[in-house]
Structures are given as structure tokens and as C-alpha cells.
Design a protein that fits this description.
Barwin-like endoglucanases, two-stranded antiparallel sheet, pyruvate, cytoplasm
């Protein structure tokens, strides 16, 4: 049997732009994507910490180390510049793999710099 588990998470990224007149997606700094193991065009789930909105879209890569987190198209209506968001990607694993699977959890700093990378979360803490 296959189950879906968290693969990568970007925690508390700051929205730098919201571009309504764009085809759609979220544009992310390539460095942040790589830290979380998220690929370009991969489906991601997004949670807006400021307003509670939850939605999904796909990722487009931006330049490295610029801190870009830009919601595009319809997703731009779900955020405002400077909102804090959580970006999550999932993977399918078989039950045997599930026992050893570890996600990449990326804790973001105030200016969208990677502050810490972990492979384990405990309630309220990264370990």
C-alpha cells in the first residue's frame, strides 16, 4: 500500500510579491527550493499564516539567493506582500519506506534566508 507523506516544507517564508496578472503558480528562490527538496513545476500546498487561507499551485524557479516568494495569478488573491506562509510538498511511499522516510523541513529567517534545515519535527519544535 502507498501512503502520502510530507516530503519538503518551507516554514514561515515571507511573501515578497503578489502578481495577479500572471499565468499562475508560486515563484520561489531556487536556493530555498533546493533546501526543501522541491522541484520546479512540482505541486505544493500553501498555508497563509496571516489569514488562514489554504490552497495549492505549482512552483516556478526564481534566481538563487534573492529571497523571492511571489504568488502569481489567482493565488495572488490569497496573500498580501509580507504575509507569512508555509509551503509543503508531499510524496508517495510504500509502508516499508514510511518507517525511515524523513522530510526536509526548512525554517526561514526574516529576509527569506534559510535559517535551519531539519529532517524531523516535534510539536512546536524543529529538531
Amino acid at each position: 500500500m502507498q501512503i502520502q507523506l510530507l516530503k519538503g516544507k518551507i516554514h514561515r517564508a515571507t511573501v515578497t510579491q503578489a502578481e495577479l496578472d500572471y499565468v499562475g503558480s508560486i515563484t520561489l528562490d531556487k536556493t530555498i527550493m533546493e533546501a526543501a527538496g522541491i522541484r520546479e513545476y512540482e505541486l505544493v500546498h500553501i498555508v497563509n499564516i496571516n489569514n488562514g487561507a489554504r490552497f495549492e499551485t505549482y512552483v516556478i524557479a526564481a534566481e538563487d539567493e534573492k529571497g523571492i516568494v511571489c504568488l502569481n495569478g489567482a493565488a495572488a488573491r490569497m496573500v498580501q506582500k509580507n504575509d507569512k506562509i508555509i509551503i509543503m510538498a508531499y510524496c508517495m511511499v510504500d509502508e516499508k519506506e514510511a518507517h525511515t522516510h524523513q522530510p526536509k523541513v526548512v525554517l526561514m529567517g526574516e529576509h527569506n534566508e534559510v535559517e535551519k534545515i531539519s529532517s524531523y519535527e516535534k510539536h512546536g519544535k524543529l529538531i
